[in-house]
Amino acid sequence: MNKKGRLVLFSGPSGVGKDTLLDILLKKRPEIRHSVSITTRKKRENEVDGVDYFFISRDRFENMIDNNGVLEYTQYGVNLYGTPKEPIDNWLSEGETVILKIEVHGAENIKKMYPEESVAIFIMPPSIEVLEQRLRNRGTENEEDLIRRMEIATSEIEKSVDYDYIIVNDNLESAANEVIKILDN
Ligand code: 5GP
Questions:
Q1: Among 59, 98, 102, 126, who pairs with 106 as Cys (CB 3.0-4.6 Å)?
Q2: What share of the chain is helix, strand, coil (3-state, %, to 5)?
Q3: Model confidence over 90-133: pLDDT tens digits?
Q4: What is the spatial distance between Cα 87 and Cα 96, in angstroms, rounded to a whole number?
Q5: What is the DSSP secondary structure assignment for residue 37, as one 8-state letter?
């Protein structure tokens, strides 16, 4: 019998440390597949096209939607973000564990599509003040974007009650270990 694939939905407000956590996780569990999303957002300096995201134009994004190439997508701030469909279909049929970094609406949609396969984990900041400080220290957003991200953060935190697990990220290593414990169970 085929092993059933799993979708790990990894959400949390901007600046909470999802990317760093994901890096640690993928190093500790290299067999986990990472679904690389498409986005119309501009690449940050430390990001690599094809690794962090596929950075594409709005035209190409819309083209992929029209061609049924996107499993789900959403607008976050002024940009579009979406999950390419084909790799997810393939990995699930191969019984792989796939991790998706995804905001709350996307996670809700995927959970509806794959109720059996999905495990939803919300990464929570120790406090809203710490979150804002982390986002400011990161220095990747202008003030307008930062304020928008903090507004989105508040509504995302309200949605965290719908998640299967909530992990507070006050220490990266122990947060990563908590995620691994969930995956190993
Ligand atoms: P950022 O610009 O900080 O990289 O991402 C902004 C938000 O978009 C984050 O909450 C991130 O998890 C979310 N996101 C990234 N990729 C996807 C995706 O494919 N689908 C959805 N719905 N959200 C995504």
A1: 102
A2: 45, 25, 30
A3: 999 999 999 999 999 999 999 999 999 999 999 999 999 999 99
A4: 11
A5: P
Pocket of ligand 1 (CB under 6 A): 14, 37, 41, 72, 74, 76, 81-83, 101-103, 106
CA–CA dist 13, 76 (Å, integer): 11
Mutate to test the pocket of ligand 1, among 9, 11, 37 (most ligand atoms within 8 A of CB): 37
Longest dimension (CA), the chain: 53
Q: Model's pTM, two decimal places?
A: 0.94
Q: Which residues contact 48 (CB under 8 A, 6 or more apart)?
A: none
Q: Which residues pair with 55 in a beta bridge?
A: 39
